[in-house]
Amino acid sequence: MATISAADVKRLREMTSAGMMECKKALEESGGDFDKAVEALRISGAAKAAKRGAERTAANGVVAAVDNAMIELLCETDFVAKGEDFQALAGTLAQAAFDGQVGDRDALLAVTLDTGKSVEDTVAEMAGVIGEKIELGRVAVLQAPTTTYLHRRASDLPPQVGVLVAYDGDEEAAKGIAMQIAAMRPQFLTREEVPAETVENERHIAETSARDEGKPDQAIGKIVEGRVNAFYKDNVLLEQPSVVDGKKSVTDVLAESGTTIRAFARFEPGQG
């Protein structure tokens, strides 16, 4: 039997992002042949990944963007998210979304890459090699002009918050709004986009809370309206206070620069 060193295990792990014990076992079974070890990990990993797909959640990952297209590639751990191959795949998928202007997840999964394999098969193959659940998350393509902001939570991590903004007007102002969206997490562009059932639910919660707090009946109406407006300020981009100047709303800042936000997408693994 070939002698397997810690350096061999480390090398295979860096090549595949598979677990340490899985790498050691694959090398032992292949007699130290790295090509055979990679193939063995791919075969065994595919079965494990399929099983994990039904049992585990891919709440980590990376956000990648190319021009007016942005995608989210999900995995289970930040160890995999930091891997060069994983990040390269995310870049490839973002490029594919841009090239075909494909803004739908299912449609992108069906796209054939330069390798001759579909996006779906390519993602599944990587999941098989790594032995961890990997899946394509959300996909967005917005009408140009657009600007993008990708945020890293730590210097050793890839971008894990991505914002894509479609705008008319000043690019720097739009970039500032993209950073606002990354930080403040609005769910809607305008209050008209908020579903009626969501607003009604907020009203119900506000009224119930006010009554539980013993507020007088004559004050309930104003209290409810105040709390619903607070919900809008938290969740509607154009009504949020500016992170640059808290005395102004996002709408005020945009008006000063002659800029209009037409649409936005915000991706953060685990938050979809």
Give an overview in words.
This protein has helices at 6-16, 20-29, 34-55, 78-81, 84-100, 105-109, 119-130, 171-184, 196-212, 217-235, 250-257; strands spanning 60-66, 69-75, 135-141, 146-151, 161-168, 260-267. The mean pLDDT is 89. It is elongated. The chain has a domain at 1-138: Elongation factor Ts, dimerisation domain (Tetrahydropterin Synthase, Chain A, 2-Layer Sandwich), CATH 3.30.479. The protein is an alpha+beta fold. Helix 1 (6-16) crosses helix 2 (20-29) and helix 3 (34-55) crosses helix 7. The chain is 51% helix and 16% strand. It has 11 helices and 6 strands. It has a 3-stranded antiparallel sheet. Strands 4-5-6 form a 3-stranded antiparallel sheet. Strand 1 (60-66) and strand 2 (69-75) form a beta hairpin.
Notable characteristics:
single chain, 272 residues, Tetrahydropterin Synthase, Chain A, three-stranded antiparallel beta sheet, 51% helix, 16% strand
Give the overall average pLDDT: 89
Radius of gyration: 24 Å
Which assembly state applies to the chains in this document? Answer: single chain
Give me the strand/helix succession. HHHEEHHHHEEEHHHHE
